[in-house]
């Protein structure tokens, strides 16, 4: 069933990360005191809790988005910075006790445990329910729980597992610990990478049955963009992303096309303008400044009174007087990638003289400086994380086309994206076997900059990277060469998970 009403998001206090294992059943604040769900209303409230858990600053509004890009070659630490994320940026200092990586692992299993709690108890509520509308709502809630669990597991696989090779050996590669039940006797043991992805796909199949749009919902009478809830097209978007990571090119094209051709979303244009506080901004800027865009498939909904982390803090550290960024964009991104008529440069970067004693003047990443409704209340750097955007779907499909040898179709998708982002662009993009993947890589950096994709892209492409010092960059970390397939492309399993009572969890090479 299509969601008939947008849920009212409640402020839920996240449980402290204190238990010995993320697989333990917590947080208790998310469940009734008697450990049961007895009414449809309670099930619905539990789903609201699942949505709220995605607001965690350990996830999309913080560590899960920032760490994979800070770890690579996209930004440089600035002399005099606060040292935040320094272990990750320096690369070689990443340990299994890193608190930021631990928090990602824990927050994702928090989502999973909340989903399991609902799914274990919903059948008893359904058996006691006779009202058709309430039964439909229960189906909707189950669909949302299945999708949320699939999304959380897909992120765990992405961060803590090797790349899926589709070479017949993924059944031997370690995946993640899979749990289907809130209270069960499931072993603390990693499933294979193949079985881990199969679990995600099975959950997405179940979600697809329950969250499919009704026939009378059409793009002409239904708005799905900039939504804060899951629906049929968030499922397709994740299916496309997972298919790309599994090197299932046919399905990547299939599901990305479902989203692209749906009619519910259109790319935001840098050539169309609107007025904000008396100033003209293009619609691409508006997407970041106001968190509204026709290309946003799913974003995490914040309000002034209920929000997660501040993605923009490390790029600004604005104190109403000056900017003291911890990290600034890499020179090669700013000056080597973007064409002169690519309007993304002026839309998401802005040159600033910092407040440091060395007076560094450098273009800062402005797209995370914050929703203007928040900044007007002196809340800086808070923007609603856009977990799925239409532009990524074009990039997924283009890469899948390239891997299938269809360079013409891939070129059309890149042209479509660039036309929306450039002041002017030609009628076609020439892609060949020699240049296609270079174009894909460059376009993914330009379009998805600091949205959490770079580390995982390099891992699945089996590519390394280099850093060379730039103006006022920290000496420790600025000179770095990372070879392809370095163990730290896969994050270490948190040490407390390995040491927990009853744990049979296999460590990653990066743990050793």
Automatic annotation (TrEMBL):
The keyword Isomerase does not apply. Residues 28-215 form the SusD-like N-terminal domain. Keywords: Cell outer membrane, Membrane, Signal. It is found in: Cell outer membrane. The keyword tRNA-binding does not apply. Belongs to the SusD family. InterPro entries: SusD-like_N (IPR033985), SusD_RagB_dom (IPR012944), TPR-like_helical_dom_sf (IPR011990). PROSITE patterns: PROKAR_LIPOPROTEIN (PS51257). GO terms for cellular component: cell outer membrane. Residues 493-512 are annotated as: Disordered. This is Membrane protein. It comes from the Bacteria. CDD domains: SusD. Residues 361-499 form the RagB/SusD domain.
